[in-house]
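Support request, please re-run this one:
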Amino acid sequence: MTFNDDFPPVSKEEWLRQVAKDLKGKSLEELDWQISDDLKVSPFVHADDFAEPPLPFSSEPNNWEICEEVVVNEAVAASRQALEALEGGAEGLRFVFEKTPGSADFEQIFEKIHLDFIGLHFVGAGVAQNPGAILGNLERLAKQKGVATQSLRGSLGYAPAASSGIVDWRYLVDLVEFAKEKFPKFKLVTVLIPPSVGDLAVGLKSGNLYLEKLTERGLSPADVAATIQFSVAVGKSYFLEIARIRAFKLLWLNVLKAWDAPLNYPVVEAHFQPEAYSDELYTNMIRATTMAMSAVLGGADRLTVLPYDAGRESQATYSQTFSRRIARNAQHLLKMESSLHEVPDAAAGSFYIEQLTAKLAEKAWGGFAIGRH
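Re-run finished. Output below.
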């Protein structure tokens, strides 16, 4: 006798008869979700819709990195905020540099930080303009602290193909080869996946472009793939955001397969769309938790939660220290109390999410294939 013996299987046909009865003449199709002009999903999905039971993407749990953003305007203040974040439980820091930092500022920011204990992520115009300078500063600092650069993990928000100017692919090749030796745990290129449903194909095309251009210049597909991460802006549509991340991870395996590269799921960093927040600050607190859940259940490898008063600090009753703490705690609830980091692909087996994942993947792959001709 098992637990399932108390619940005999019910076929899809039987369910549909009951649904029709409960709807009292209303068509089930009237409840379909029209996501876009050419994408619609039914609210009712059953095991009979799948030839085989859906399996988790991986047997490994998704222990994502709790990240916090530090906007660097002044080195001392940035250092103070970084330490506050780490003391409050952040596992990685995302430094935003609007201009390329000098070595003195770099040393000041990281004066009391153990470089090899956390994720080190660098974004902003100052990084995009001179990514090599960031790695050079980090190399000098690691040497001062007696830390091997090979032990450091992190990323650069560098996306040369997304710029409007001419791309110096030779510079990127040199950067990749340098990092392979000195910073093997760093992702150098960040591909932005736009927030709209139909734009998963854009992320695939961008990632594939780096594979094309860099392999033409002598790098192996494996080395190119290993240096790319994907950045997803998470919105407030709970199930859709879960499925978007899952669909993209599956699709990137298809791209790698075509290049005969190792089939490793892509590293996905997730952050919030600022437009998802409103002037209702306490609503934003709740919204942040559900958006964070979408990212985590979708399989994001790193998550930065936007403080509930972001861009609306003048409306807040409490300090920014408090709002950053609440943003951090949203992830702590998901990891330390809900233990979602111990579950491999927590959304797997949800027939509705599996259907939505498949539909998004099919639509995006069609868009990618058309763009490749």
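The mean pLDDT is 93. The beta strands are 33-36, 39-41, 65-72, 92-97, 119-123, 153-158, 185-193, 228-234, 267-272, 302-304.
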